[in-house]
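Field reference: sequence -> structure
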Amino acid sequence: MPDLSGKNGFVTAAGSGIGRASALAFARAGAKVLVTDIVEDTVEETCSLIRAAGGIAEGRIVDASSDEDARAVVADVVDRWGSLDFAHNHAGLGAAALPFAEQKREAWQRLFDVNVFGLMSFMKYELAQMEKQGAGAIVNTSSMSGKNGSPGLSPYNASKWAVNGMTQTAALEYAAKGIRVNAFCPSATMTPALASWAEASPEEYRAVTEAIPMKRVSSPEEQAAAAVWLCSDEAGFITGTLLNVDGGDGILGKQ
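Structure field:
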């Protein structure tokens, strides 16, 4: 396991799924973690899990589309613990599957407010603070849909291409300033939403898993391990990468 002892940071959308697994993994690696989400109960649950395992965590209710909340989260970590050493920008929304011509502008706007403009705000304040320090690591949750076409998911697909572009542009701009910026790209992951779908549509779920070269979906913990590693010194010469965590899907050129 990477060693993040003495490091401080935060995870957005850490109330469940990959975000919760990430917050727990950062804490297990020795970091102090500010747990953020828009739902108070889930924030407290994640904090309780971290503390029960001997880790250090505080919680904050955050709207991931808010520029002011992004600024406040960065300031909160620095005020509490003195530095912002890592940030996992995980917050994001999905969309209903519809053909491109049937997608509504409102759906695009809703996704881009969080997935693109919200992420832009968080990265802006993270980068400014890390530049003051002369060091830091940022990891963004992208998607295999940010690398390949995803029929029916045009707003989501486009938003994740934007995530990838912001990640690699920031990586180039800040590489000489001691700041690394990476993203990881999950494929199907056993989050609560996927578990509900698997129960409701077992045949469709079976078809999805059979199409993955490893013949299974990933766990949130496997995705979280990628986030922690990319923010650790073990990945110290890695920046601007878009890491597939996909069971081999990317080799086939699939989402």
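Note: The first strand starts at residue 8 and ends at 11.
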